[in-house]
Amino acid sequence: MTSSTNYDLIVVGCGAAGLAASLTYAEATETLDPPRRIAILERSIKEERGGATRWTDAFLRVTEDRTFDPDYVDHLDRVSGGRTDTAYLRKLEREVPKTLSFIEERGVKLRFDEFPLAHRFDKGVASTTPPGMPEGGGRSIVEALAAKLESFPNVDFRYETEAVRLITDDSGAVSGLVVRGSDGRTRQLTGRSVVLACGGFEGNYEVLTRYIGERACDLPLIAPGVANNRGDGLRMALELGADTAGQFDMIHAEPSDSRTSKPNAVLYSYIAGIFVNQQAERFFDEGIDTWDNTFEKIGYEIWKNQNQKAYWIADAKTLAIPGIEAGFLSDLPPERADSLGELAQKLGLDAEALQETVDTFNAATTDSEFDHTRFDGKRTVGITPAKANWAVPLDTPPFIGYPLTAVITFTFGGVRTDTDARVVLPNGAPIPNLYAAGEVTGLFYHEYPPATSVLRSLTFGRIAGEHAVQQHS
Asked: N or C: fewer beta carbons within 10 Å in the chain?
C-alpha cells in the first residue's frame, strides 16, 4: 500500500458490495492516464477480510439458467405491506444475470445442489429447482474479487482502518473521509466519490438496543465477521441528512445449534417436527409455511419471547426424508435417544413435561404419514398453536432433537438509496458523490425472503462502481 491520501474512489467495507464496487471501477478505468486511485477500508486484518460475506454460505435465489426468482418482487411487496421500494427491486431483478456473469467470469464457480424440504412451493407443489451458491460459499467471492483487485497497482487495501466521518465541501458534496488506524490516530482521505458498503449495525449492541429494544445484548452473532458491522455507514450518512429505509426494530435472526461455536450452525430441516421452549411447551406453528418463509420468524420468536432457548424435537420419520441432514448446518449431529425421556435428559428438559406436550400433540394429529414435497394439509385439531401441515405423531424412535438459540445475521433498517445506488435525502435528491450498497442500505419490512442478501450486495455494489465511473469521466 502506498502512503497516498488522495483517491478517486474510497470504498468503506471489503465484503461483497465493497469489492464489487471497487473491481467494477478499477476494471473500467485501468487504461486511463493517470490511473484512477482506489482505497478499500476494512476494519479487520487481511486474513479475516470480507465481513459477513466471508462467513455466509451465500445462497442465491436463482435457477440454473441464471434467472432470478420471478415471484420475489411481488412477494416482498406483499410481506412489506407495500412499503418496500419496488423500483429498486425491479432493478435488482434485471441486473441479476449480469451480476452472476460478473462473479463467474472472475473465478467464482456456482453450483446448484439439491436442498431438503423444498426451496419454495408453486401452487402447493414443491419446486425441484435448488438455490444456487458459490463453491466455497461467500469466502470464495471475497477471495476471488480481492485477488483481482490486488493485481491493480493503483488499489490500496487499508486494513485495520475504520471510517469516522464523511467530509463535504462548501456545496454539501462528499469530498472524502476521516479514518482511524490501529494506532488510534485519525487522518483524512480525499476522494471524488465514497461508497458505503460496511454492513448494518449487528455488531454494535448500543445501537441494537436503541433500535430493537431490551435484551439486544443477548443476541449472539451468526459469524465472527459480523462483529465489524458497527453501524458506521448509517451513522455517517445520517450526519449528512440522509434518508432511511427498512424496519429499524426488526432483524434477520436464525435458529442455531446452541452447543457449538461454529458459524452458521443453522437448522433449516424442521417442518416434520415440533419446537418447544424451556418449559417443553410448543410455541409456533411449524407447518404454516415452507422453512424458507418461517426460519427467520422462529429465530426472532426464540429471542424475543422464549428467553433465547428452544428445542426442536422429531423422530425417525423425519430422518427418513431423503437428504434431510443437508439442512442441519451444525457441525454436531442432533441428540438421539430411544425414548422421549432420554432425549429430554440429553437436552436438559423436564421429561414429564416433554412427554405431556408430545402426547397432546400426537392426540391432535389425524394421520401417521405426511408428504414433505407439498403443503399436504395434514393439520392438528383442537390444540394451540396448531400445526397447519405435516402434522403426524412423534412416536417412532429414535427420537432426535437440537437445542437452539437465535443468532443475528443482519439488521433491516439502513440508508435509503436510489436505483443508481446513490444515497438520497428525504426529498429524493442524491447526496453528491455518496453511494451505498449491501446491508448498510435499508430494504426489508416484517420479513426477509432469503437467498438475496449477497445478490443485492454484489448487484448494487457493481452499480455504484459503474455510476462513479460515469461521474468521473
From this structure: C
Nearest to 152 by CA among 69, 39, 252: 39
H or E stretch at 133: strand 133-134
pTM for the model = 0.95
Which residues fall within 8 angstroms of residue 58, CB to CB, at 6 or more apart? 16, 133, 134, 137, 138, 141, 454
Q: Which residue has the cell 446448484?
A: 112
Buried b (16+ CB within 10 A) or exposed e, 300-328: bbbbeebebbbbbbbbebbbebeebeebb
User: Which domains, ranges and CATH numbers included, belong to the chain?
Assistant: 6-247+412-472 (3.50.50.60), 252-407 (3.90.700.10)
**Ordered mean pLDDT values, 10 residues apiece, the chain (473 residues):** 79 98 98 95 97 94 91 94 97 97 98 65 43 94 98 97 98 98 96 98 97 95 96 98 98 98 94 96 95 93 97 95 90 98 98 98 95 92 97 97 98 98 98 98 95 96 98 93
435 and 467 in contact (C-beta within 8 Å)? Answer: yes
CA-based nearest residue to 303, from 436, 408, 195, 439:
408
